[in-house]
Amino acid sequence: MLYRNARIENAEATSDIRVTDGLFAQIAPHLEAAPGEEVIDLNGKLVLPPFIESHVHLDTCLTAGDPVWNMSGTLFEGIECWSKRKDKLSRQDIRERVQQCVRLYAANGVQFIRTHVDVTDPKLTAMQALIELREELRDVMEIQIVAFPQEGILSYPNGKQLMIDAVKMGADCVGAIPHFEFTREYSVESLNFALQLAADNGKLVDVHCDEIDDEASRGLETVAARALELELFDKVTASHTTAMHSYNNAYVLRLMRLLKMSKINFVANPLVNTHLQGRVDTYPKRRGITRVKELTAEGINVSFGHDDIFDPWYPMGNGSLRDVVFMGLHVCQMMGYEDIMNSYRFITTNAAKTLHLGDRYGIAEGRAANFIVLDAPHYYDALNRNAPVLRSVRMGKTIAETRPAATEIEF
Length: 411
Ligand SMILES: [Zn+2]
Hints:
By secondary structure, the chain is of the alpha/beta class. The chain folds into two domains: 2-48 and 362-401, Urease, subunit C, domain 1, CATH 2.30.40.10; 51-360, TIM Barrel. The chain is 33% helix and 20% strand. It is built from 13 helices and 16 strands. The chain has helices spanning 75-86, 91-107, 125-136, 159-169, 184-201, 219-229, 249-262, 270-276, 292-297, 322-331, 337-341, 349-354, 379-385, and strands at residues 2-8, 15-20, 23-28, 39-41, 46-48, 51-56, 110-118, 142-148, 173-174, 204-209, 236-240, 265-268, 302-304, 371-374, 389-394, 397-401. Strands 1, 2, 3, 4, 5, 14, 15 and 16 form an eight-stranded mixed sheet that branches. The protein has an eight-stranded parallel sheet with strand order 6-7-8-9-10-11-12-13. A hairpin with a 2-residue loop joins β15 and β16 (397-401). α4 packs parallel to α5 and α6 packs parallel to α7. The longest helix has 18 residues, at 184-201. The radius of gyration is 21 Å and the shape is globular. The structure holds zinc ion (ZN). Zinc ion (ZN) binds next to loops.
């Protein structure tokens, strides 16, 4: 199969791409079609490596309004709504919603998902369902599973053992939620436990870290210190870190040295945190998003996630990561020309680092032929016009196609 005239990652010039046996066989300015070879002309459209969802909760997705809507929009009312919905939670219910959500993502060019799965459940129902689906959906979506202790590791009965069990069942990553633990001591101990569990079992780490507007919430320094000392480095990710928005600058200056030494990744969730943070403020209201611009300037890896898709905590979401990037650029004030042009990296190459995909990801000869085609010549235009993903190709096979809507102007 020969794809002609691809504009790979905003390049000025176009390239031809030959795909053979599910791999990128050749990429060059011009390739001759072999006799009988199928040719698709991409007409200078933007070609990117597939989008990556680096932070979502698939086990709660698509439950907004069932059985009740979150009327205030707050985190706490979200928890109340979820506790009513939790009664109906079954393996089949989770399977159906996750399959539907994966199809939404696929339609929008996503081929990799890191999902957090609540393990503060003595039956580990959601974990079991997600582990089955990870296998079943492997050909269309690569799913990474984080054992996520929604109600804490030390603050939930048998919390440590549930984490150990989830890792034994096959979780890819160990999670934690230090800002939710009962005490600061529990917070530190939960992180020591989680990172040691990951080190002992060769797992990645992704912590819900300091997702609160409390400037005294300092789980992040413990995450970074343990990542450094246990030599886990970039296997570790700190998600949210919204408290960093409220830290004093002198502390951030000191912290930044440790963050760089630790080589950890960050995930910001601009839609959900703009919606949920600053809720106890009157005016001025904090934006409650981590310091994406400053971390990026220091060479620290940051990716963006959706976090929640149409659930009690966030009432929107259709599987498109475009809105995540769009909101992220606004709320982080990263709207310079280069910032906008390169912002696809928050949901592609940067996210690939977060997920630790290595050379399993990227458009290069010899790698898996996974790519997407957008209806735009470059990402600036794609982002601005909300251009659809025309085609998503995985291991050389088209797994989703979209025909753009046509508008007739009558004057
Ligand atoms: Zn989350």
